[in-house]
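Fill-in record for Ribosome maturation factor RimM.
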Amino acid sequence: MVIMGRVTGPYGVGGWIKVFPYTEYVNGLLDYPDWWLGSEGGKWHKFKVIEGGVHGSVLLASLERCADRDAAARLKGLKIAIPRRLLPALPESGEEGYYWSDLIGLAVINLQGEALGKVAGLLETGANDVLQVRNPGETERLIPFIDQVIIKVDLAAGRITADWGLDY
């Protein structure tokens, strides 16, 4: 399963949910008629998407078996995933981009070989994506995911090399 977003809460009283997508475009998840909701390492449950739309930077969706606000509220915090076999294949070289879920958990080191932490998440800022890098006992680092900063993404080795200092 490739995690493509998360449910942030209910929307209205008719059972709609608000979704924070991890896709390049806010409405990218609407390309898939079925979503699997659950948690990483947990059980996934398939939901048919009845209807959806964009509201600012948030995706709104109506799902089967989710008829009222209480049902929608129970989905809050769940991840939304799509089976990898249903997604377009991306080369490991990154020439066509990366799935955010493939970057989460990768170790980040700088050009001096110093560990900056692990990718805990990504943010979409409009100008560029930003890696949220956490190291136990330290504050979170926000590292722009741009060519000038990200030197190499090595999915096989589980590592990202960045031109970023420990003191940034």
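KEY FINDING: The chain has a mean pLDDT of 91.
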